[in-house]
Amino acid sequence: MDSTSSSSAAGLGSVDPQLQHFIEVETQKQRFQQLVHQMTELCWEKCMDKPGPKLDSRAEACFVNCVERFIDTSQFILNRLEQTQKSKPVFSESLSD
Questions:
Q1: How far is Cα 10 from Cα 91, in angstroms, rounded to an integer?
Q2: Cα(74)–Cα(65) distance, integer angstroms
Q3: What does the longest C-alpha to C-alpha distance in the chain come to?
Q4: pTM recorded for the entire structure
């Protein structure tokens, strides 16, 4: 068992760049799908009192507002994380100084 895992781990250093790109794209798709699922679940719980054959105007407005706030919040968090990452020196750069 150990020899199999060590040989597969050794092979990871020479992964095909196209395969690496494919994996990155698929991972991004999966994260996006998870985000949509979270948003749907959150907004459904918040806005749907009782499911019916038609969406009333209050529920529709609630869904629109919920989705917009969810997107705004997600974007804010991503921007904040980017700013935090840019302001901190990269570990390898600090070692070379």
A1: 24
A2: 14
A3: 66
A4: 0.57
Contact 74, 35 (CB under 8 A): yes
How deeply is 2 buried, as exposed, middle or buried, from its count of CB atoms within 10 A (0-12, 13-18, 19+)? Answer: exposed
Q: What is the distance between the alpha carbons of residues 56 and 66, in angstroms, rounded to a whole number?
A: 15
Cβ 70 vs Cβ 39: under 8 Å: yes
User: What is the full per-residue pLDDT of the chain (97 aa) written as tens digits?
Assistant: 444 444 444 445 677 889 998 998 899 889 889 988 998 999 999 999 888 888 899 999 999 999 999 889 888 988 888 888 888 765 555 555 4
